[in-house]
Design the sequence.
């Protein structure tokens, strides 16, 4: 049965939010729409933080609420902690202004 | 309940409080204002670093914000304290307050020949005004008069999953069932969800206006040449699990529900009388956005928080709701409503909405919020351009 403490907002999302602390090595089952998916947690994840529920390639869109929340800056494996170390935003980025931004944000 | 007990104003508005703010028009009046408010019970000091050496858009925004507080539905009357002749003029502000039928007094430090005389004049004016205010009685008023302010603070990943749903539920209950208004803000926190938000606009004109404002903020941030990460999401947001401004935004927008948007109004501008949901164009900086919403005339403010926050406003009672069970334990004195039982389905979101709504009913009738009881408040007018 799916763990109610690990929530996927939209079936198209590739991340889930942990509403309890997750421990490296545990297998968790999450509800993705009407289906269930089991992934092994690769590292400890704090309350409120996210894990990947599928592989996300470098540069690919990270999706929550069915929308882009940024792009992966390295390959993210299922069960990886997803946060500022492996995802970057596409807004308010004076440091990369003009570089293919529009393409990335509305996927 | 379709009625509450409020204070009638001559301009037709109805207040849920009967405040007497003492308002500085420039930083050089701040000390006099603070000292007078220390002496006279039940007054609210409104101080800030603005009001002079500003270009026209900022002067207008400062003036409009101060006037918004002086003529807020929850304001009985106001004492305006100026330093000397300034670009934000104290006498003009006091005259504009009087036009709404509210008592108003204008004190000028130079005209009084110094701060001691000015303090005496401010105390005299405020003392008389709070005594008159205390004599006014609450009367039955229709809930359609009320405007519901919405802001989030120290968001985390629970915000969009839980407490924002209760906030949206209560706001739309006021709009749909009682004919009131709602207003939410923080335009840079639309990043990533702006298209869906704009599609909710009641007209194509408003739809374009929303997209244009979001683009303006993004361009403005990009023009700095710096990466905004770390400023948005803030360190406390990131600690709570939010990774990017897009993720913060998509969660933040949940607090506005999914109903139609009537209009997007300028910072500090009055919220229109027509029932419905409005946006105010403000930064994501909570103290600045809440100050703007207060100037727009919202009667009360819901701060929907993840990690807990002291953010509050002196003129608009501020009800804080959280759905993060850890926060309700960490900062109980900042938690008016704890709906964390709805986070993983131990209770429904309708239950959470009811919890918030019941608190709103109490507060509009006079119950103090946690931050009112502690005397907490912040006031920060958003500045557009440079000082000169």
Sequence:
């Amino acid at each position: 049965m799916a763990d109610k403490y690990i929530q996927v907002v939209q079936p198209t999302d590739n991340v889930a939010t942990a509403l309890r602390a997750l421990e490296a090595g545990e297998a968790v089952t999450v509800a993705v729409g009407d289906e269930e998916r089991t992934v092994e947690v690769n590292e400890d994840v704090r309350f409120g933080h996210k894990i990947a529920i599928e592989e996300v390639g470098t540069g690919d869109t990270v999706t929550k609420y069915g929308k882009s929340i940024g792009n992966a800056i390295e390959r993210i494996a299922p069960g990886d902690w997803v946060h500022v170390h492996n995802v970057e935003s596409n807004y308010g980025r004076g440091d990369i202004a003009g570089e293919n931004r529009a393409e990335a944000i509305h996927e | 309940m379709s009625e509450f007990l409020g204070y009638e104003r001559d301009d037709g508005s109805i207040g849920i409080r009967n405040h007497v703010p003492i308002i500085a028009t420039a930083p050089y009046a701040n000390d006099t204002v603070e000292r007078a408010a220390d002496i006279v019970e039940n007054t609210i000091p409104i101080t800030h670093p603005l009001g002079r050496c500003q270009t026209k858009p900022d002067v207008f925004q400062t003036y409009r914000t101060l006037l918004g507080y002086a003529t807020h539905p929850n304001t009985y009357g106001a004492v305006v304290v100026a330093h000397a002749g300034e670009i934000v003029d104290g006498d003009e502000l006091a005259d504009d307050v009087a036009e709404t039928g509210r008592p108003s007094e204008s004190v000028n430090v130079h005209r009084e020949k110094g701060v001691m005389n000015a303090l005496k004049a401010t105390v005299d004016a405020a003392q008389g005004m709070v005594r008159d205010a205390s004599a006014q009685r609450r009367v039955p008023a229709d809930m359609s008069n009320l405007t519901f302010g919405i802001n989030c603070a120290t968001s985390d990943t629970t915000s969009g999953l839980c407490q924002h749903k209760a906030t949206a539920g209560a706001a739309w209950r006021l709009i749909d069932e009682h004919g009131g208004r709602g207003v939410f803000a923080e335009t840079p926190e639309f990043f990533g969800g702006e298209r869906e938000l704009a599609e909710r606009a009641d007209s194509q004109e408003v739809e374009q206006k929303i997209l244009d404002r979001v683009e303006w903020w993004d361009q403005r941030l990009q023009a700095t040449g710096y990466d905004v990460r770390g400023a948005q999401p803030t360190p406390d947001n990131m600690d709570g699990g939010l990774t990017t401004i897009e993720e913060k935004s998509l969660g933040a927008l949940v607090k506005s529900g999914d109903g139609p948007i009537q209009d997007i109004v300028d910072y500090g501008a009055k919220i229109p009388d027509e029932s419905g949901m409005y946006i105010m164009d403000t930064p994501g900086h909570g103290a600045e956005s809440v100050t703007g919403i207060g100037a727009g005339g919202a009667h009360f403010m819901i701060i929907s928080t993840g990690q807990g926050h002291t953010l509050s406003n002196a003129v608009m009672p501020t009800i804080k709701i959280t759905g993060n069970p850890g926060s309700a334990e960490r900062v109980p004195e900042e938690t008016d409503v704890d709906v964390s039982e709805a986070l993983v389905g131990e209770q429904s979101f309708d239950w959470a909405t009811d919890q918030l709504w019941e608190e709103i009913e109490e507060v509009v009738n006079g119950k103090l919020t946690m931050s009112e009881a502690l005397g907490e408040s912040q006031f920060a007018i958003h500045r557009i351009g440079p000082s000169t």
Q: What stands out?
A: Chain B touches chain A at residues 156-158, 160-161, 188, 191-193, 195, 217-218, 221-229, 232, 238, 240-241, 243-247, 250-251, 306, 324, 326, 343-345 (CB under 8 Å). Residues 41 and 126 of chain B are 9 Å apart (CA to CA).
